[in-house]
Design brief:
The structure holds two protein chains of two kinds. Chain A is 67% helix and 2% strand. Chain A is mainly alpha-helical. Chain A starts with a helix and ends in a 13-residue tail after the last helix. Classes of the chains: A mainly alpha, B alpha+beta.
Chain lengths: 291, 248
């Protein structure tokens, strides 16, 4: 799949932002006034910035409001509603915290729920696609959720929670790669089922593409650049996203080191999210003799 | 609405004969022509006369080389367009309701004024039947020529999809696959029509008729033994030359 920067930025930043907002709305860390304002501002900037970025890959962003209409069937539509609930509720909670120094416990619980539900809906947009076997797995929502919660804990300064969650994220990511690498072969879709011409996929081969140039399908679904480096990028991404933040957070606390932990985490997350798209193979590539 | 209808009154679709298709791409051209001049946003091209032309098409013809063991190899031309699936994954993923399946005839369409161009329906389609128009930025797909098949201003023989009308080989058939007595259903029954990627669970309406088995050709010709080359060895001057050159 083509790793569009707008979608990588969106999923990474909004995942982190909603994770942070969830912790803040549960009262971790407990604070008020200016400190509270800064924490919430970071949370909203990440979540809303990510959502805005996602509109850049739309052909007609001016019609985006219509995406609220099909929540009964579409995960993308559900994501729109859930993110709206999450932002409004955590906004109300934040106002109480910042200006009135009150704790709206019920609102906080609800907004934390909707923050996590939003991340789940985002993950289901990918996990529902049978056409991309690597994504069509329970591992996809698990990975998105644990990353969001671990990143949120890191940003919220909940070091004792962030440390085990970051380690767990690394383990889950490795497991997801192990399953994901086998997913396409296990899906049972190959050129033989795609064309119905033979039973044995080795007996049929793409002889000629329908066109001499490229097309939308090949640009969007057949992305090979950088796949040969995926092994190195997986290691780099894991070290940056999980390994280095764990080391930094284990050191005596300072704001400088915490910032370093956050910066390495987010760079690692961008690499891992880039791989999520670049390594995913769509079955339509079979028709072109490509993966 | 992006929920699928439980049942459609008809299942209009195409039956494509892979035995007959000659791979001329006439259906591609007529499809592009009709759907650029009629319903919906025109099918655009970018850099059409330049080094990297790209454009949207609703129908594309692949070619596959089939090499079965113990059978002759053959080349199959393989037209591919929207299969108007009964369980269309492209419809249910749509967040705006732009993508829908019609109850009356099962045709899957896009309401272009509601399409936000998110591309998720193209991601959900295993067949590559949907393409984002590079200029209009809305999703384009086969309409089964919904503006021809019910158009009483056209002569009766033209009230079929443009690709079907154009095919010079008669490799494309149009009809109601929900009616077991229709010509297309009988054809599918007789020729063992198949679904593409059945494991994806899309239940496509369009069917593909497999190529008929080719004749076995163990011996090229009964006269072949008599046609073996007579002069295996050179003689006369060439025999001398051959020997001399070998000796050098």
């Amino acid at each position: 799949m083509h790793p569009a920067p707008s979608v990588i930025i969106f999923t990474t930043l909004s995942g982190l932002g909603f994770g942070l907002l969830a912790f803040l709305c549960l009262g971790y860390p407990s604070m008020s006034g200016l400190v509270s304002f800064i924490f919430f501002a970071i949370g909203f900037a990440l979540a809303i910035g990510g959502l805005l970025s996602s509109t850049f890959h739309l052909g007609h962003p001016e019609r985006a409001i219509k995406a609220f209409s099909q929540w009964k069937s579409s995960w993308l539509s559900r994501e729109a509603w859930l993110s709206l609930f999450a932002l409004v509720l955590s906004g109300i909670y934040a106002l109480g915290r910042i200006f009135l120094d009150i704790e709206l416990t019920i609102v906080g619980l609800l907004s934390a729920f909707f923050c996590i539900a939003t991340v789940f809906a985002t993950s289901m947009i990918y996990a529902q696609l049978k056409t991309v076997p690597r994504w069509n797995s329970r591992m996809t929502p698990i990975v998105f959720l644990i990353f969001s919660i671990a990143g949120g804990a890191l940003l919220a300064g909940q070091i004792s929670v962030a440390l085990p969650l970051l380690a767990l994220s690394g383990v889950i990511q490795v497991v997801s790669w192990i399953f994901g690498d086998k997913a396409f072969a296990q899906s049972g879709t190959n050129l033989a089922t795609a064309t119905g011409l033979t039973v044995n996929p080795s007996e049929v081969r793409s002889f000629e593409a329908p066109h001499t140039g490229t097309n939308y399908l090949l640009k969007e679904f057949v992305y090979k650049v950088g796949r040969k480096h995926s092994g190195k990028l997986r290691i780099m991404g894991s070290i940056l996203a999980f390994g280095m933040p764990i080391i930094f957070l284990s050191l005596p606390f300072s704001h400088f080191i915490a910032t370093l932990a956050f910066i390495t985490h987010i760079i690692g997350m961008f690499i891992i999210r880039w791989l999520f798209f670049a390594e995913a193979e769509h079955v339509v590539g079979l028709y072109y003799g490509k993966r | 609405m992006t929920s699928l209808p439980e049942k459609t009154e008809k299942k209009l679709g195409l039956v494509i004969d892979l035995d007959t298709c000659v791979g001329c791409h006439a259906c591609v051209v007529s499809c592009k022509g009709w759907n650029t001049e009629n319903y919906g946003a025109p099918l655009s091209d970018e850099d059409a006369f330049g080094a990297e032309p790209v454009g949207s098409f609703l129908n594309r013809i692949h070619s596959y080389e089939v090499t079965p063991t113990n059978k002759p190899a053959h080349l199959v031309h393989f037209p591919k367009s929207c299969l108007h699936c009964e369980n269309a994954p492209c419809v249910t993923v749509c967040p705006t309701g732009a993508s829908y399946k019609r109850v009356e005839d099962g045709i899957v369409l896009v309401n272009e004024s509601d399409c936000i161009g998110c591309g998720l329906c193209a991601w959900a389609c295993p067949y590559g039947a949907r393409e984002m128009d590079p200029v209009e930025k809305v999703m384009k797909k086969c309409t089964l020529c919904v503006d021809r098949i019910y158009n009483e201003n056209l002569p009766e023989e033209d009230q079929v999809p443009s690709c079907v009308r154009t095919c010079p080989a008669g490799a494309r058939h149009f009809g109601d696959l929900g009616d077991p007595n229709s010509d297309v259903s009988i054809l599918v029954e007789e020729r063992g029509g198949t679904n593409l990627m059945p494991e994806q669970g899309t239940l496509p309406v369009n069917k593909y008729l497999p190529p008929r088995p080719k004749n076995q050709m163990d011996e090229t010709d009964i006269l072949a033994p008599y046609l073996e080359p007579i002069a295996n060895e050179p003689d006369g001057f060439f025999k001398w030359l051959d020997k001399t050159l070998d000796g050098i």
